[in-house]
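Notes from hallway chat w/ T.B., transcribed later so I don't forget. T.B. wanted the structure written out for a chain they're using in a teaching module, and asked if we could keep both sequence and structure tokens in one place. Agreed to drop them here.
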Amino acid sequence: MAAILGGGGSTQGPDEPAPAPAPSGESAEQVETPTAKAAEELGYPSFATNNTTRVGGSDPATTAAGVALAVFPATTPAQRPAAVTLVDEADWQGAIAASVLMATPVKAPILVSDGDLPDPTAQALEALDPQGAKATGKAQVFSIGEAARPEGLKTTEIKPGEPAAVAASVAELRDKLFGAPPQHVVLAPEGDPDFAMPAAAWAARSGDPVLFSGSEKLPAATVAALKRHTQVPIYLLGPSSAISSDVFREVAKIDKRVRRVSGEDPVENAIALARYADGGFGWNVNDPGHGFVVARSDSPLDAALAAPLSASGTWGPLLLTDDADTLPKALREYLLDVKPGYTTDPTRAFYNHVWVIGDQEAIDVNQQAEIDQLAELARIGGEP
């Protein structure tokens, strides 16, 4: 099947420009399996450099399928997920909430429905061949909101509704499947997708559910969900322009253990969660040796589709870029701050790896090359 490249250092000097990303991957024709054929047709991976790998689907269904096959190569039964989650391509809130189902023990990657099953989704579903398990309640598919219900597969459905109600239902399903209350709850803004996006990666990594709030009012479904776990800390994601101080105070009446994690804009907001640490909550990624995922801030569905990459492999936070051509200053400075280095032996160093989500219309190859350079292992001090 297609090779999955990324990670590690190179002989490239710290001041040399990064090479332009080049096509990579062994022809899937060499291995005649459903997974190999799907990987070839989906074009995964699109481009890779020493320190970056792009999953660059031209549409959400293709991107989701590429991520799912990267995390679950499915060449053996042990490499297949027990279930997958289907989300509607128009429902970014439901998709972000459903990212929690990628956490252990369920481990269900997300695929995309458009009312039916697009070809990339159908191919990936055939290759992944979920069989259900005790951890999934025997379900082979979790269908969220308006997403399709595949014939012949045991499906657990989350009924369509307002974003807060769908998220609350996903959180309730999460409690049932995990068999335990969450360690934390994330409250994200339902009307500001670019501020809500980082919650998907954290939910997949931690198993903490994502609930939604309006900017000025806490929905009744969210209130009911929060009251189910009044001793669980709550973290509001986003600035007061996305979730107001009045909502913060309303949440505090339900549970005094409430904190806000925020940045002034979506790029800085994602970095704030990547850096944040409060006991067991937060990525606390403030040093080298980590994985990262970079997506466009105006593609909220991509946050959920890429969430499995934050719950496997190099396990890392979602970061955002707000332009196809130019890396935001705040993101460049953050990646430079956590850039890995070595003094004498590069083989004993820590390495960073970055997944780039979207095609070249979303994130240009020149921006990917700059990300690669910022992730590149550099020599620090010592003799040249």
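Follow-up for T.B.: The chain has one domain: 28-379. Might be a good example for the class.
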